[in-house]
Write a structure and sequence with these properties.
Elements lengths: L1 H26 L7 H22 L7 H4 L1 H20 L1
């Protein structure tokens, strides 16, 4: 269980930092992080970090793919966690 917590902390920190990095690149008109990578980090368990990064840095908040997609990923992950918790007792 401890390793799952470490994993989730790491992937959420990474998703948060990816949002910061992409925002900085956007400000300076530089090469950007692909949207698939940003959404992928959320899908791999970093949805909370991605969501916090979106609103903390005001990044991707006008894109429905993100404003609807990241919360949907978070809800799906929470449902999966509750399902697994029930199944494992």
């Amino acid at each position: 269980m401890r390793y799952i917590l470490y994993y989730l902390l790491t992937v959420n920190a990474a998703a948060f930092l990816l949002m910061l990095l992409d925002k900085q690149k956007a400000i300076h008109h530089r090469w950007r992080i692909p949207e698939a990578a940003l959404l992928g980090s959320a899908a791999l368990g970093g949805s909370i970090g991605a969501l916090l990064g979106m609103y903390f840095f005001r990044h991707k908040t006008k894109h429905k793919k993100f404003t609807l997609g990241v919360p949907a990923i978070l809800i799906a992950q929470l449902c999966l966690a509750l399902f697994l918790r029930q199944r494992m007792g």
